[in-house]
From TrEMBL:
<keyword id="KW-1133">Transmembrane helix</keyword>
<keyword id="KW-0472">Membrane</keyword>
<dbReference type="Pfam" id="PF10881">
    <property type="entry name" value="DUF2726"/>
</dbReference>
<keyword id="KW-0812">Transmembrane</keyword>
<dbReference type="InterPro" id="IPR024402">
    <property type="entry name" value="DUF2726"/>
</dbReference>
<feature type="domain" description="DUF2726">
    <location>
        <begin position="70"/>
        <end position="186"/>
    </location>
</feature>
<feature type="transmembrane region" description="Helical">
    <location>
        <begin position="6"/>
        <end position="23"/>
    </location>
</feature>
<protein>
    <recommendedName>
        <fullName>DUF2726 domain-containing protein</fullName>
    </recommendedName>
</protein>
């Protein structure tokens, strides 16, 4: 073989090597390789079944996918959209812990309200500068003294932080105008609570 032919063969090999490297790097797998991997998975499942000494009638079944977890239930989602509609210039945060609200006021407040750890409110409404306007809770009406007491404890804790608590009922969700009026009242209450704190 002469030098020209040898250099052409080497160049072709180098180009093929580069193309193969790029192809593998891009993550694409050839069809034959995919079929092989499926076949391997099937045989691997059979080997695993034999290793566990299972009855031939027993076989592994792929578990169904779990339902995707949602942060808000249907009523909370509806109220969230109404809050955003009623107050487009304000920020609405969901599932906020009372301890986090206390921490926003300082470490002393957080330590004082440490018993509220694990308790939260459904929504917190903030001004454009992220100062807290009100906390909003979505709660079914109850006849139980224990539930009412827990809500009162939460209300007192939030009031001590200067945060008014608004409670809406899922079976009587307010419209955007009613929410706007409630928030305006909450701003007035917050200002009064802030004045009492100082």
């Amino acid at each position: 073989m002469d030098n020209v032919t040898l250099s052409i063969v080497l160049a072709a090999g180098a180009v093929a090597g580069i193309l193969l490297f790029i192809y593998r790097r891009s993550g694409q797998t050839p069809v034959a390789e995919t079929a092989r991997s499926r076949q391997y998975a099937g045989s691997h499942r059979e080997v695993r079944q034999q290793q566990l000494d299972l009855d031939p009638q027993t076989r592994f079944v792929e578990s169904p996918k779990r339902k995707q977890y949602r942060l808000l239930n249907d009523s909370e989602q509806e109220l969230y959209h109404r809050l955003c509609e009623a107050m487009p210039s304000m920020q609405v945060f969901v599932q906020v812990g009372v301890a986090q609200l206390a921490l926003a006021r300082g470490r002393q407040e957080a330590q004082r309200l440490s018993r509220m750890a694990g308790r939260g409110v459904d929504f917190v409404v903030c001004d454009a500068d992220f100062s807290i306007v009100a906390a909003i809770e979505l709660a079914w009406p109850t006849t139980g003294q224990e539930t009412d007491n827990a809500e009162d404890v939460k209300r007192v804790a939030l009031q001590s932080l200067g945060i008014p608590l608004i409670v809406f009922r899922p079976n009587k969700l307010p419209d955007a105008d009613t929410i706007s009026r409630e928030i305006a009242d909450a701003i007035l209450r917050r200002n009064r609570l802030e004045a009492e704190r100082d």
